[in-house]
């Protein structure tokens, strides 16, 4: 007979830990299924290891700026130690979650790949189990674009890049989004030559153009070669050298490098679950369709995290779990109430919340905007980190903040105050009254609203 559990969680990304925190104390029986690494992408090949690399790269960059701060340093890159530090940090997170699951009496960890055999029945190997509630948390994987010869070249995705034992001599990156841009700066600071092939006219095309161009400017200043309006056509390898042919403005150009990173997007892992045997629906891109509470077309079956297409970040995955738990235990949270927020962890970082300027205009808002360069913020000058700017977008009719960004030192942290402002519906004139600590970057955020001008 099939064993029935009160709860079955498929995948161990960040939503899983949040679910377990509330489900375990109920005493209900719980099965957790994982066919790969415990912790999912964030812990193993996403946030945790990549931000460890970002920290190493920033420390190296700061040391090279010794003359600016009054000292001299001879910087020598120890890539094996950089990698060891990264592995120590991600292993701690992986082991901590694993031990918690395995040591909890009412939780069973099942190693293997899950496939649905019906709406509430899942097969793992030769075993079938049934769940009263099922939570699909299987994430996404890298997409490999249709580039001729790619199958014959040892190309890297974001996960395989982290397993390199040698520092690339020349890293060619196809894709100028979050993953491509962050890795470009990191490996350039480690000493690699880096080239980015970007299909669009700018890097980070989802951002307003002033943001995209500013990011491109500081990457160029660090020696990263950027080829926009360029499409990768073919790739080959000879004697350990990878050659990529791209077409740029109708002209073919060739780049030779030691390593190739493909960072052109991700696709949901829904196609591995045999959802055809269920009433669960997916859209044309493969994302599992859910309602405002992350519930699929099957009552009691939920899809959380990247696989549902309503966010591509750890914090949205965690929030999905909180929304589901609210639904089960009587709360009020909904996906539609979530304010979009995210960061690009370059140096300086980009923190973004709410709408971009172009999104607000497309939605027919009458808006006011203000921009303050980081070079006008005392704390940034004191740290010699004056690259970037702050930008706010305000609804002229209601005095409500629609969106904000901070491209500059501390932007990934300071942006949280604007998120609080939008979530709490605090009018801009009320926010302006707040007194904040001097000298900080955050103290100048209320003052930005004195600079608002209308946008035609």
Element layout with pairings:
Blueprint: E1 3-10, H1 14-23, E2 30-34, H2 40-45, H3 47-64, H4 66-69, H5 79-103, E3 107-111, E4 114-116, E5 121-124, E6 127-136, E7 140-142, H6 158-161, E8 170-174, H7 178-190, E9 193-197, H8 209-221, E10 225-227, E11 230-238, E12 241-248, E13 251-257, E14 259-262, E15 266-268, E16 301-303, H9 314-329, E17 341-344, E18 350-354, H10 357-362, E19 367-373, H11 378-382, E20 389-395, E21 401-407, H12 411-423, H13 428-431, H14 445-448, E22 453-454
Parallel strand pairs: 1-2, 1-6, 2-3, 6-16, 8-9, 8-14, 9-10
Antiparallel strand pairs: 4-5, 5-6, 7-15, 11-12, 12-13, 17-18, 18-21, 19-20, 19-22, 20-21
Helix pairs in contact: 1-9, 3-5, 3-7
Question: How does this model look, in words?
Answer:
By secondary structure, this protein is of the alpha/beta class. It has 14 helices and 22 strands. The strands form 5 sheets. Strands 1, 2, 3, 4, 5, 6 and 16 form a 7-stranded mixed β-sheet that branches. The chain has a 6-stranded antiparallel β-sheet with strand order 17-18-21-20-19-22. It has a 4-stranded parallel β-sheet with strand order 10-9-8-14, with helices on one face. Helix 3 packs antiparallel against helix 5. The model has no long low-confidence stretch (mean pLDDT 96).
């Amino acid at each position: 007979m099939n064993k029935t559990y009160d709860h079955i969680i498929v995948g161990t990304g960040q939503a899983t830990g949040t679910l377990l925190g509330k489900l375990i104390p109920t005493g209900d029986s719980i099965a957790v299924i994982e066919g790969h690494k415990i912790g999912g992408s964030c812990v193993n090949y996403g946030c945790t290891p990549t931000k460890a690399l970002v920290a190493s790269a920033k420390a190296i960059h700061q040391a090279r700026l010794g003359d600016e701060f009054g000292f001299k340093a001879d910087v020598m890159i120890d890539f094996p130690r950089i990698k060891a530090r990264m592995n120590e940090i991600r292993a701690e997170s992986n082991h901590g979650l694993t031990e918690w699951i395995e040591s909890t009496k009412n939780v069973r960890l099942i190693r293997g790949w899950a496939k649905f055999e019906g709406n509430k029945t899942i097969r793992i190997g030769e075993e079938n189990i049934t769940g009263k509630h099922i939570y699909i948390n299987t994430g996404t994987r890298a997409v490999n674009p249709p580039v001729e010869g790619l199958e014959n070249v040892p190309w890297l995705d974001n996960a395989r890049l982290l397993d390199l034992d040698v520092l690339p001599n020349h890293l060619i990156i196809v894709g100028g989004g979050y993953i491509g841009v962050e890795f470009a700066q990191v490996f350039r600071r480690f000493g690699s030559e880096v080239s980015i092939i970007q299909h669009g006219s700018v890097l980070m095309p989802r951002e307003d153009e002033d943001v995209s161009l500013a990011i491109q400017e500081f990457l160029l200043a660090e020696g990263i070669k950027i080829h926009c309006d360029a499409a990768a056509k073919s790739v080959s390898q000879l004697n350990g050298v990878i050659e990529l042919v791209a077409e740029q403005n109708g002209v073919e150009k060739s780049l030779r490098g030691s390593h190739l990173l493909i960072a052109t997007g991700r696709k949901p892992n829904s196609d591995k679950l045999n959802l055809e045997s269920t009433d669960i629906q997916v859209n044309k891109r493969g994302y599992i369709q859910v309602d405002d509470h992350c519930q699929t077309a099957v009552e009691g079956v939920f899809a959380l995290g990247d696989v549902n297409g309503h966010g591509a970040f750890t914090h949205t995955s965690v929030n999905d779990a909180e929304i589901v738990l609210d639904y089960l235990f009587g709360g009020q949270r909904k996906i539609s109430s979530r304010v979009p927020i995210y960061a690009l962890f370059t140096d300086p970082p980009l923190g973004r919340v709410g709408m971009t300027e172009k999104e607000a205009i497309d939605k027919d808002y009458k808006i006011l905007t203000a921009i303050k360069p980081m070079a006008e913020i005392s704390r940034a000058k004191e740290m010699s980190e004056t690259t970037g700017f702050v930008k706010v977008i305000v609804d002229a009719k209601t005095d409500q903040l629609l969106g904000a960004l901070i491209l500059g030192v501390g932007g990934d942290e300071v942006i949280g105050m604007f998120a609080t402002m939008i979530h709490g519906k605090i009018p801009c004139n009320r926010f302006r009254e707040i007194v904040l600590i001097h000298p900080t970057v955050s103290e100048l955020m209320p003052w930005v609203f004195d600079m608002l001008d209308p946008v035609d």
